[in-house]
Amino acid sequence: MFSLEGITTATQDWLLIKFNPTIALAIECVIVILLSISLFALLGLVLVLMERKVAARIQIRLGPNRVGPGGIFQTAADTLKLVMKEGLTPDTADKFLFNLAPFVVMMVAMLLLAPIAFAKNFQIWDINIGVLYISAISSLSVIGILMAGWASNNKYSLLGAMRSGAQIVSYELSAGFAVLTIVVLTGSLQISEIVAAQENGWWLFKGHIPVIIAFVLYIIAVTAETNRAPFDLAEAESELTAGFHTEYSGMKFALFFLAEYINIFIVCAIGATLFLGGWMPFHMGNWESFNHIMDYIPSSIWFMGKTFFLIFLIMWFRWTFPRLRVDQLLNLEWKYLLPISLFNLLLVTIIAIMGWHF
Amino acid sequence: MYNQTEIIKDTTELGPEGELVVNMGPQHPATHGVLHLVVTLNGETIKKIEPHLGYIHRSIEKMCESLTYRQFIYVTSRMDYLSSHINNTACALLVEKGMQIEVPERAQYVRTILNELTRIASHELWIGAMAMDLGAFTPFFYAFREREMITDIMEDTCGARLTMNYIVPGGLMYDIHPDFQNKVKAFIKQFKEKVTEYEDLVTNNVIFQSRTKGVGILSAEDAISFGCTGPVARASGVSCDIRKIAPYDVYAKVEFDEVIETAGDSFARYMVRIKEMNQSIRIIEQLIDTIPEGDFVGKTKNVLKLPKGEFYQRVETARGDFGVYIVSEGGTTPYRIKFRSPGFSNLSALSHMAEGSKIGDLMATMGTLDLVIPDIDR
Amino acid sequence: MFLKDYIYDVYNGVRSLLKGMRKTGYYFTHSKEIITEQYPDNRATLKLADRFKGEVIMPHDDNNEHACTGCTACEIACPNGTIKVVTKSEFNAEGKKKKAVDALVYRLELCTMCNLCVVACPSDAIKMAPNFEHSVFDRTKLTKILNKPGSKIREGIE
Amino acid sequence: MTNEEIKVYISSHAPSVSYDETGEWLNLTIEAAEWKDLALAITRSPLKMDYLFCLTCLDWKTHLTMVYHLTSTTYRHNIVVKANLILDKPQIETVSEIWRTAEFHEREVFEMFGVHFLNHPDLRKLILEEDFKGFPLRKDFEDPINMIKL
């Protein structure tokens, strides 16, 4: 059976035979870096194409269909175009911060890849405080956005960055609380343990209604955190033209664009890990044969399937809803999501203490 | 108009007390054209809006002074290009009134049907654009699907999709297409099926409602004082439908309601337009089967000469009261022509409506004003 | 009651959002609703309305004859100076001097497709053609001479 | 209200008004100086001319004429008010605080005809550039560069 675990173990064994452990570790590092960068590029291309296709289907159009069969090379062509474009820096911009900002956003997105379990035993860094690490790092992306908005010396950018700041800081809370419900149920912050705890059923099914509520809250909060419609106030097209990246062009713009999609992927991956069992296959109670068939599907497919389902959900939101206003956005968080998630966390704690979950 | 150096100065300097002066437009996704608003902000709150016009000013009024009474009609298609048919009708009606030309019944019926189709097409486009201003991209495509059917009907009968140029003084340029009635009926059927989609997607949507309810309130007194007309004034409870006040063509013969809402906010303006589309369908349904046989154009002289005097004709376009004022010296061309465009007056109320609201509200307010920039600049 | 209103608000809001998602979800899953026209690919089957006003043309018959008498009615009717009729003097069969069209210059870039020239023409010599692919790389190519070289007026048209 | 009643009411406020009923609506020609007072009078009961739907100017080469089209949203009667201005120094009192729509229309007339509206809150060019010379809608306006004579 195809398994990523086998490949990694074989590689490591081979490296350890050939080299001394230090060099082997260094080579592994290089391999991981190369893999994650190529994953980035690939994900960016795939997700942009997926977004355009989903949008087209919802909007009774065909979407990109000229470059390659069914338009699959469209995003590659677009990237090529963006690479060849001139990267303009405005005269009055703070040049250092202006050029740094896209890389900050990008690096934050890259750091978040570390604790994600892509398949069974296929994880870059199984840190014991994985969930905390994710919460901490993901809040950093706002710094990049604020930097971009401020350094551009453009009023639209500044307004967009300020909106983004207020938004991400607020929605961190409910995202954090939603994540905490799972931590409470599992009793661990480690990603691998959270996944392992779902071997006999995903938390979404095991945890009764409170976990379903937490899941909904999580999806809403991360939609806001990644600046996606209906919460795309930071780049609200009809209000602020393009918000914080108004002044960016060429590859620097592409980095922002890419980071947006990578962030979506990451939050959806985390959502899939926490609520939908990560790479765990779908099992139905005592149906032995059914479960056996499910086990035959590789764990990486399970993980990607769940993640892309969540990504699709977020795209579906984007192409259906109008945008909120900035005060309504904060109202929604502080008056609705936060009280509900606090109450929900309390419920989950009671369930966890009493052992009422399956 | 600001000259270039002043625009640069405006974008980089803060106003007094930390106010932020933002140039919205002339190239901005929400201004739907080349409208330039100088918005003074305090944080996200709007303190003042100052429209700067003229980016698409073609001085149509001056231009018309050198065009004959047959020719000047087609320039008006380029003003409010979304209701070009209605503008053409206004000019034709004025010439007919001035010269006492009899218009055959058939032509009047067809004109009325086409006017109402134009109104629906304009409102359809507006729904899409308005939803897009508020961040919902999808309704745009659904609205355009229905609008496409209307443009197809126009293409069949008038030979063009946007600037139809189908009305001549005395009637129509040529007879309607043989398929016209069937196509209109097919459109009515499709429209009735699909209009509920907007309810699900837009009207009942909780985000849309919270974005528009209580936003950009215009009281009835202000609406009258600012000279607002059309759906903008009717949403504030002002009865101002020219089709009712001074009926032209066959509007006196058909039954329809003047849609009036009293809230005066953006949502009321939205609802007025949605209900108006249904009323337009009602008018078309009454007329489409009873188009009388006969001539499509009345007897006119080869060279039209309006008698000495002043003439004024008001019609109800999709945006409101469109007026043509002609002063004639008896020649073949007008001495002075004035187009009273609804958008110009509606725009003047924008600053009053949006003051004290957020930037996001400005988009809702501006969207529901349904501004067409060539109509404002002329 | 506050809590009841609160829950009712949340319920109604979520319900309206789900309704919208059902609508877009329907279109996502029903590909037969797609209405895109594959324009350059469907050029062979593309059918334009026969009245479509794309440009002014002057129909010529097989003998390279047209119906234009060079009366300049179209030139007078045109609001933008799109049409310019250049006339010449010609001797007809009986040896009488007669005005005829030398060149009917049509400037497409000025034309607003108002159809007034076609209506004004007493001999139906010009008409609107349903042709919309006018893009050229050089603007001077938009200035056209409508009568073909060597063409002459059809017999019997005054 | 019939035209006769309107005439009686207006004459009681502005005696020097002359009437012309040949057109579709009742036309009155007034002195430019009287306009502000008359405007205030006709907005009140019983006329309630609360809706100024068209404001424009005519250039008669010898003089300018301001034209105000007014209607009442309650009684639906229309009047047209005209005021002659001298060509060299055209000025008239603004009505922008009575009908706020006049603010924009007067700015347009100001730049197109050069009529000065006294006490206008913000009399600047609205459509044309700030350094534009001349008044385009006047009959003697010549622009040899941009205007094509057909």
Describe this protein's structure.
The complex is a heterotetramer of chains A (358), B (378), C (158) and D (150). Chain A has one domain. Chain A is 70% helix and 1% strand. Chain A contains 15 helices and two strands. Chain A has a two-stranded antiparallel ribbon with strand order 1-2. The radius of gyration of chain A is 21 Å and the shape is globular. Chain A starts with a helix and ends with a helix. Chain B is α+β, with helices and mostly antiparallel strands and 378 residues long. With 158 residues, chain C is an alpha+beta fold. Chain C folds into two domains: 2-33; 55-153, Alpha-Beta Plaits (2-Layer Sandwich). The mean pLDDT of chain C is 81. Chains in contact: A-B, A-C, B-C, B-D. The interface between B and D is large, with 42 and 36 residues.
Comma- or semicolon-separated keywords:
heterotetramer; C: 158 residues; alpha+beta; Alpha-Beta Plaits; 2 domains; three-stranded antiparallel β-sheet; two-stranded antiparallel sheet; 7 strands; D: alpha/beta; two-stranded parallel ribbon; 21% helix
Structure summary:
The complex is a heterotetramer of chains A (358), B (378), C (158) and D (150). Chain A has 358 residues and is mainly α.
CATH architecture of the largest domain in chain B: Orthogonal Bundle
Overall structural class of chain B, as computed from helix and strand content, comes to alpha+beta
Flag low-confidence runs of chain B.
1-13
Considering DSSP H and I runs of 4 or more, what fraction of the residues of chain B is helical? 40-55%
CATH topology of the largest domain in chain C: Alpha-Beta Plaits
User: Which radius of gyration of chain B do the C-alpha atoms yield?
Assistant: 21 Å
Number of helical segments with 4 or more residues of chain B: 15
Unreliable parts of chain C: none
